[in-house]
């Protein structure tokens, strides 16, 4: 009898991050690039955990994180960008989307994961881009300002 790993489908807010200009940094100074990855982990992981985020995986210089609520994902992302304003060695872009993800063998899959990745690509350096689904979830929160 074979060992079958069934996947689990969950509704999550999905956050993708990417270090701006990392390819250039890595081509000029590999040691610095590796140090930046460590600094990113040291700064971001405690913030993510504070908002009950799940640190799913590191993808090169990017991160894939999930949250049970869009509001937690947005608040966490705002705190991350605020904290990184003090960090001079790198800046990141953040994208957030809300949708179904499939968890299987410790990895995540699904169209909504891909959409979250694409949303990140629209973010300015030091900024946060959100999908329409996330916007609808947070539009009533007065202390969060958005622009189109």
Question: How would you describe what is shown here?
Answer:
Strands 1, 2, 3, 4, 5 and 6 form a six-stranded mixed sheet that branches. Helices cover 41% and strands 29% of the residues. It has helices at residues 22-28, 30-50, 70-84, 111-120, 132-138; strands at 8-19, 54-59, 62-67, 92-104, 107-109, 128-130. The protein starts with 7 loop residues before the first strand and ends in a 10-residue tail after the last helix. Helix 1 (22-28) runs antiparallel to helix 2 (30-50) and helix 2 packs across helix 3. It is globular and about 40 Å long. The chain has 148 residues and is an alpha+beta fold.
Number of helices: 5
Please give the radius of gyration in angstroms.
16 Å
Overall, the morphology is: globular
Q: In which range does the helix fraction lie?
A: 40-55%
Please trace the helix and strand order, writing H or E for each element.
EHHEEHEEHEH
- The span between the termini is 54 Å
Give the class from helix and strand content and strand pairing: alpha+beta
| Nearest-integer average pLDDT | 91
Tell me the strand percentage band: 25-35%
